[in-house]
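Discussion board: Methods & Data

I've been asked by a reviewer to show the raw model output for two of the constructs in my manuscript, not just the figures. I'm not sure how much to include, so I'm pasting the format here to get opinions. Each protein appears as its amino acid sequence followed by a line of C-alpha cells. Is this the kind of thing reviewers expect to see in a supplement, or should I convert it first? Here is construct A:
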Amino acid sequence: MLETPVLIVGAGPVGLTAAIALSQHGVRSVLVERHPSTSIAPKARGINARTMEMYRQMGIEDDIRAAGMPARYGKMILWAESLAGKEINRLAPGRGSAASLTMSPAGNCGCSQDILEPILRRHAEALAPGSIRFNTELSDLRQDASGVSGTLTDAVNRDTIPFRARYVIGADGTRSFVRDTLGIGRTGERDIYDSVNLHIRADLRPWVEDRPAALYLIEQPDLRATFLTVNGTDRWGFLIHSLSVYGFTRENLTPERCIALVRQAVGVPELPVELVGVSFWNCSAMVADRFSDGNVFLVGDSAHETTPSGGFGMNLGVQDAQNLAWKMAAVLHGEADAALLDSYDAERRPHASDVVRTTLLNMQSFDRTARQAEAKLPRKEFLNERGLIFGACYKSAAVVPDGSNPPAVSDPVTDYVPSAHPGCRAPHVPLTRKGQPVSTIDLFGRGFVLLAAAHGAVWRTAASQRGLPRIDLHILREDVVDTEGNWMDVYGVEDGGAVLVRPDGYVAWRVATLPNDPARALADAFSHLFGRQAGTQAA
C-alpha cells in the first residue's frame, strides 16, 4: 500500500510544478507518470511573465532562462511566403514592449517543454528524493469521506499497487483519466482544426539570424505552416495547420513527405532535414464544468484546453498548481478548514474561461483553419494580453473584501492597472532591502507576507500572534525602502495601512489606514480566509 498526503497524476510541467510547490509548503506528495520519462518533444515553449514570476519565487528562474532560447528570438513574429522567399509582414508582440517590462521584474521566456521538464524534475527530486515514479499509471480511483483510494499500475510489467491519499491532483492532460473517472464534462468548441507538429533538426540560421522571431508563419496556396523557434539554430518545431483542408492525413504524411514540406516552407529543395518526431493533434477550446470533485482536483490541460494562440495553456496550468498548493498545504497543516479548497474552482475556472475564450477569438482572427488568398494579421489582442496575464482579480472566500472596487480598465484583455485591491496580483514595485535592489515580487511566494506602511511595532505584534500561520513582515522604511516613492499609491494605503499577500502572490486583505486594533483586524482576516478562529495573543 502506497500512502501519501497528495498523489499527483501526470509529470508534465504542471504536475512537476505542483510537486515542487507542495514540497516548498512542507507537504509530501508522490507524482506518477505513465510514460518512461519527461517529454522528448518541444511541445509548449512560451512562459509568460506571470509564470516566470512564480518560477522566480520558487528559485528556478535562472535555470530556466539559462536553458531557454536566446531572448532576442522572443521579440517578433514574422509572416513570409517561405523563409528564403518574400517576407509579408512583421509584428512586435506587446508583451515585450517597454510598458510591459515595467510591470514585472520577470519577463517572458522561451523554453521548450522537453528542456523545461528535466529542470523541474531535478528541482522536484532534490526537494523530495524518490517521490517521482515513471512508467506508473493511475488505473482506478474512488473516494470516501476522508480521502481517495485506488490502484496504480506499472506500465511495463502490469503489476498493481494500491494507494491511499488525502488528495489527488489530476495533471494528466487533455485526455484526463482523472477527469473522465469523475464524470466531469467540458464546455466549449471541440476539434476546431487538425494539425501535426514536427520536431526537426535543420540549420536555418542563414534565413533567420538577421531577423530573429519566436514564430515564422508560412503562407502558401498549398501550405500554411509555422516554424516554432526552439534554440534559433538547428532545433525547430514545424506546425502544419488544418491538415484536412489541404488533403493531408496521418496516412499520407509519410516521413519523406514531412521533410519535403519543411523544405518547401524554407524554400530550399535540398536542405538537410532530420525528422526527430511527429505528433498529430486536434485543436479545441474547452473548460471543465468543475475543477474539483470531493478530494480530487484538476489542473492544467485536464481542466482547460486552449488554442495555441498566445501560448497560454502551460501558463494557466502552472498558475493552477500555485493557487492550489498553498491552500492544500494550509488544510493539511491544520491551519484552515477544508472549505478553503472550494476557492480553487471559484478563482481559477472563471479566469480559465476568460483565457480560453480570448485565445479562441485571437486564433479565429487570423484564421489558420482555412485556405486564404493572402495572410491575415491577428487582432490587436494577440500577444498583447497584459490584462489576462497580470490582471486576474479573484472573488472567493480566500479573499477579504475591503469595500473598494478593482481598477477600471477599457479592455480587460489588453489593459492592466497595477492594484493591490483584494483578489488582485500584488503588483511589482521597486524597493531596496539591506541596500540591495529588490521587487515586491521577490518578497512573495513561500508563505503569507504582510507589507505595512510604518508603525512597525504594532504590526510586528499583530503578525506574531499565536494561532496565525508564519507571516513574513516588511515595514516600509524599516525593513524595505521605497526607492521611487510610489509603493503606498500603487498599493492603495496610507500611513499605517497594510496589505496581506497570499503565498501565490495575490492580495488576501488590505487596510488603507491603521486600524484601532491591528492584531484583531489581522486575526479576523485569517479567520475569514481559513474558516476558523485565528489569533489568540502575542507570542
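Construct B, same format:
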Amino acid sequence: MKVVIVGGVAGGATAAARLRRLDERAEIVIFERSGHVSYANCGLPYYIGGAIGEARALTLQTPESFSARFRVAVKVRHEVTALHPDRKTVSVKSLETGEEWEESYDKLILSPGARPTRPRLPGVELEKLFTLRTVEDTLRIKAHINAHHPSSAVLAGGGFIGLELAENLRALGMEVTIVQRPKQLMSPFDPDMAAFLHAEARGHGVKLALGQTVEGFAEKDGGVDVIRKEGPPLHADIVVLAIGVTPDTGLAKEAGLELGLKDSIIVNDRMETSVPDIYAVGDAVQVKHYVTGQDAVISLAGPANKQGRIAADNICGGDSRYLGSQGSSVIKVFDLTAACTGVNESGARRAGLEVDAVILSPMSHAGYYPGGRLMTMKVVFEKGTYRLLGAQIVGYEGVDKRIDVLATAIHAGLTVVQLKDLDLAYAPPYSSAKDPVNMAGFMAENLAGGVVKQFRLEDVDRLPRDGSVTLLDVRTPREYALGHVEGFWNLPIDELRQRLDELEAGKPVYVICQSGLRSYIACRILEGHGFETYNFAGGFRYFDAVVNDCRLIEAATACGMDR
C-alpha cells in the first residue's frame, strides 16, 4: 500500500507517524510546500519576541529525523499542483529544481492547512507588510527586525496570532497598534470576557483600534500607512496581517471534491472526502461542532492531530471516528491567561439555543495559602436542561487546569449542576476544598432549585430608577465610594439584618457586591424576611471591568473583597 500525504505539519505528520506504527510495510510519502515539517505554528510569535531563542526549536522533527525514525519519504519544498482521482495520481513540482512529475497513490491524505487571509486591498503586496503562518514567514519577520530595527507595528487582526505577536513585539520595545473591524479581540470569547483582554493589552501599552475598517495600505516616510475608513491613517514601520486564515483547498476544488463552509473540504467522521480513497484532515476540513452539532471550520492544532490519527487508523483497516470539535483553546495575554471551550453565549444564541450563564471570580487556590491569584469564570448552559455548553476563563494562574476540567465535562455530557459533584484534587497550594469548577456547579444548583434568581449585565440599564424596585449595594462604604453602579444605594451586608426596616416591603430587591458572594448572602437574608430578590451575576468587579475598562486585579479576600 502506498499513501501520499499532501502537507507535513500537524495533521499530515501525525497521520504519517501513525501509519508507520500500524503498517511497517506501507510506502509513505509526504509532500510539503515549505522547507519544514512538523513545526510548531503556535510558537512562531514567541521566536520573534525572543522567548524562544533558537529557530530550530520550532521544528519538532526535521525531514531527516522524521525519515530515519519512521521510514517516511519526506519531500520538503515540493508542491502538489494537481490531484487526479481518476488515475489516482498527484502532480508534483520541485520548488528547488523545477522538475515536475506525477506520483501515484493507493490512499491520499490531504492536509494542506490554511493560508493567511489576505484581503484584496490596495498595497497588500508591500514589502513591509507581512503575514505569519510558516517558519519561513517567521524568519522573514525576524530578519527584517534584526536588520532594520523597526520601532512601531500595526497588526491587522486581534485573534490568537495578533495578540501573541502584540505581546512579543512589545517585548522588543516596539509601539504596537491592533486594528480590526470587529469591536472585540478574540472572537471565541463573549464581549464581556474579551473586555478583560482589552484592558490587559492597553495596560501594557498596546493601542486598540477596534470596530474600524482597513481600506488599504500605502508606503510613506519609509514605513506603511494603514488607511482606515473611520479616521486618519495609522502609520508604522511594519504591518502584519493577522486577520485570520482561509482553508487552502484550491487543489480539492479543482479535483471536484465536495466543499462546504469557507470552501473547506467536507469529510465524514472517518475523515473520508466525497472521493474514494482520499482523506482530509486539519485546518482545511469542515467539522461538526461538538456542542451545537452545526457545521464549523475550527483551525486548531489539537483537532488536526486527532484527525490525522483517525485517517491513518481507517486507512489501515480500523474504524476510528471523529466526534467533533469543541474549540478548546488557551492563550497568554501578557500577565493574563485566557481560555475557552465549547460554545460562547453569543454563539449558542446564534445556534438557536436558550442560554444562561453563571459568572464567578474565585482564587486559583486556597485564600489562606500565599500566592493565590484571581480568575473570572463564565460558564454557559442551556436553560431548562442545564446542559453544559461552554466556558471562558480569564486569570493569572490555574486557568488551564479549570478549562480542561470543563472541556472534559462538556465531552462527557454533564449538566452544569453536575459540576458540583466532581471529585477534584485539593491541596492549599493548588486549589480550594471547593474548587472553582465545583463553585460554578453550586451556583447553577441554586438557580435550578430556585434558591436564588440573578440579573445580568444587560439588565442593569433596564432596571427602573423610579423607586418601584430597590437597588442595593451591600459592600463596605469604602468599596462603594471607590465606584458603584448608578442608582444603587449602599447598605453593608453586616448591617443588613439591623436595618431591614429601611427597605420597603413588597418591592423586589436587586443586590450587588464586589464578587457576587456577599450579595448572594444578602439575598438569602432578605428572602428569609419575605423579600423577592435578584443577585447580580459576576459582581461589581466584573461590571467595572466590562463597562469601565478596568484590569483584573490579582487577589481577593475569602468574601470577595479586593485585596
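Answer (T.O., handling editor elsewhere):
This is acceptable in a supplement if you add a one-line summary per construct. For B, something like: The first strand starts at residue 2 and ends at 6.
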